[in-house]
Design a protein that fits this description.
Distance between the termini: 88 Å
Number of domains: 1
GO biological process, one term: cell redox homeostasis
Protein name: thioredoxin-dependent peroxiredoxin
CATH superfamily: Glutaredoxin
Keywords: Antioxidant, Disulfide bond, Oxidoreductase, Peroxidase, Redox-active center
Shape: globular
Family: Belongs to the peroxiredoxin family. BCP/PrxQ subfamily.
Radius of gyration: 22 Å
Strand content: 15-25%
Mean pLDDT: 80
CATH class: Alpha Beta
CATH topology: Glutaredoxin
GO cellular component, one term: cytoplasm
Number of strands: 9
Length: 199
């Protein structure tokens, strides 16, 4: 299975209603962003996935230090999204893609191995607005060998809901700011002033 068509390209802009009914505009660039598409708010798997990102944002240092933005998108209407957010205390935007505009822009929902339609896909977008990885395909495609992420089986990303948060976590570790070294060298002593000769 080949890589997703958006890998290495600028992420599409989005404008969708959020769970409060206000229009949410996503313009790529400026900070790392994770967009996860999921089938249905309130279902078992989607709830587990959404809550795993909620908990990561509040409790995991790599999510805090990289200042990653999380965005969830499903076909559900605004009213259902609001109920979903309120019930589970979600702290990031949940968008309503009732017309399928975002799924079309990100090519989500294509047949997976000829068995089913897959609408659970996570995209990671860097601070330049470039789509770096997505969770649907057999392999993740890094920009260079030194940032290679672990290969995962295709079923991890579609059937194992917790795999999406781990997938994002692995990528964030490659861009996490390095902590300053605990040891610092002492500054060089200033040279002594030259003696002035007296006449």
């Amino acid at each position: 299975m080949g890589k997703h068509e958006l890998i290495g390209k600028k992420a599409p802009e989005l404008s969708l209603p959020n769970h409060g009914g206000d229009m949410f505009a996503f313009t790529p660039g400026g900070r790392p962003v994770v967009i996860f598409f999921y089938p249905a708010s309130g279902s078992y798997g989607c709830t587990k996935e959404a809550c795993s990102f909620r908990d990561a944002l509040s409790g995991e240092e790599v999510f805090k230090s990289t200042q990653v933005e999380i965005i969830g998108i499903s076909p559900d209407p605004v009213e259902k999204q609001k109920s979903f957010v309120d019930k589970h205390g979600l702290t990031y935007p949940i968008l309503s893609d009732a017309k399928g505009e975002a799924r079309k822009a990100y090519s989500v929902g294509k047949a997976l191995l000829g068995l089913a339609q897959s609408s659970r896909v996570t995209f990671v977008i860097d601070s330049e607005g470039i789509v770096k990885y997505e969770s649907l395909h057999l392999r993740f495609y890094p920009s260079s060998a030194d940032t290679l992420l672990p290969t995962r089986d295709v079923y991890d990303s579609t059937l194992h809901f917790s795999a999406h948060k781990k997938f994002v976590e692995d990528w964030l570790k490659t861009i996490q700011p390095k902590e300053p070294s605990a040891t610092t060298s002492a500054p060089e002593p200033a040279p002594a002033p030259a003696e002035q000769s007296s006449n």
